[in-house]
Amino acid sequence: MLFCNQGLPMSEPQEAKESLSESLQQVITLLEKHKLVEGLVHKQYMPKHDLVESMVHKQNIIELQKKLDTLHSADVAHILEALPLEDRLNLWELVKADRDGEILLEVSDSVRQSLIADMDSQELLAAAEQLDADELADLAPDLPKDVLQDLMDSLDTQNRERLQSTLSYPEEAVGAHMDFDIVTIREDITLEVALRYMRRLGSLPELTDKLFVVDREDILRGVLPLKRMVVSDLDASVSDVMVADAVVFHPEDIADEAAQAFERYDLVTAPVVDANNKLVGRITVDAVMDYIRDESESDMLSMAGLREEEDFFASIWKSVQNRWAWLAINLVTAMVASRVIGLFEGSIEKIVALAALMPIVAGIGGNSGNQTTTMIVRGLALGQISSHNMKSLVKKELGVALLNGILWGGVLGIIAYLLYGNYQLGLVMMAAMTFNLLLAAVMGVMIPLVMTKFGRDPAVGSSVLITAMTDSGGFFIFLGLATIFLI
User: Fold this and answer.
1) How many helices (H) and strands (E) does the chain have?
2) Residues 16, 3: contact at Cβ < 8 Å?
3) CATH number 3.40.50.150 given to 184-285
4) For residue range 295-340, what is the model confidence (pLDDT) as tens digits?
5) pTM of the prediction?
6) How far apart are CA 380 and CA 375, in angstroms?
7) From CA 165, how far away is CA 175, in angstroms rounded?
8) CATH superfamily of 316-485
9) What does the alpha-carbon distance between residue 303 and residue 1 come to, in Å, rounded to a whole number?
10) CB burial string 87-110: b at 16+ within 10 A, e below
11) Helix, strand, or coil here: 281?
12) Was domain 13-174 assigned CATH 1.10.3720.10?
């Protein structure tokens, strides 16, 4: 997601990107200058040393403060994420208290934890009180229990119920991402009355593209798109202009499916209703985009075997904790692959060329398997893969693997023949490549499907598992064929 400095036009994304980079560099330069000047002043002996040091410190702080005040909260969040921990905390101290909450929402989860750890209870409570109920729901899981309880106690009844409602839903549900900033109207009034009502409000919630039409019991009757409202006769009633069959969601709906609906129907906002069709909130495209981004980042990390998003400047120990699990699994699979090679030590001793060629077979198989796995994980996420099309899917992937195996296996076979002058070695190379790509296709389809069947995230560690299978399988196939036909 691209953010730009206040005053920069959104129609110029390249300029916004460059300005954000420039702002980051300016802040880094100011921080370095601050350290250098204060270090020099601290070392020098002069009359009224403490007073001079205090004045220099205040001057540098004011310069940094002015720079931060010109930046959007999202830009400040980006800069904080790009700074080492010490500089990050120093800069965090300069952020105005009335922006703490906004910035905490914008930074990544891992960086947010480091900032919250540096704040006392009163600071956290003041930052949280700036936010709406739906925004608090994003921040609440990272707050200490005592702060969260104090925050609950400080909210009015309506906002407390809204926050509790949002927190009651899992992250994968629509209810965890809805907000309550909505404008409702009755269906029996005219458009002129509706317009007068909107003018009295003074402002509309962000991303308002429609009004929600409800009865006196807050039962949803339809939606009134603003574009219909402004082009219709003002004497017409809301019921004549509204859309009665609008796309609606329930709090228990799966957020992935909601995201697909937003894309399919080009939605900006949509109502969220309970089992009795009573309007309880809305979901907006920015919340959907945030969810999609978070899910994409999570899947990318999971496929690499990372347990969670990692702060670039986290401590060594924390980074080790994040990465060790799948590295341990990878170590086990590597040992299995090494034992497969050990079974054919005699063959390798007789034909040394096997040692040089076998990594190629394993490497190409791993890459092909990861391509297949990525396609399957994406298909599962989009709901395009189910039992009825599984047979066709496997056939298709096997066909792709067979053609690639013959093509690239043939190329490698020719290269092996040119290098070692042994046509049999070339044929073994082609056959091994083809068989390993077929194995990669089968495993690339089956691993995410099996993980899904057992209720596991198909993206978690799938890359590690497919590489393990194609490495061990590739070594076994290639060395086995070589032992049979060449020794």
Assistant:
1) 21, 5
2) yes
3) no
4) 877 777 766 666 666 666 777 777 777 777 767 877 888 888 888 8
5) 0.69
6) 9
7) 8
8) SLC41 divalent cation transporters, integral membrane domain (1.10.357.20)
9) 22
10) bbebbbeebeeebbbbbbbbbbeb
11) strand
12) no
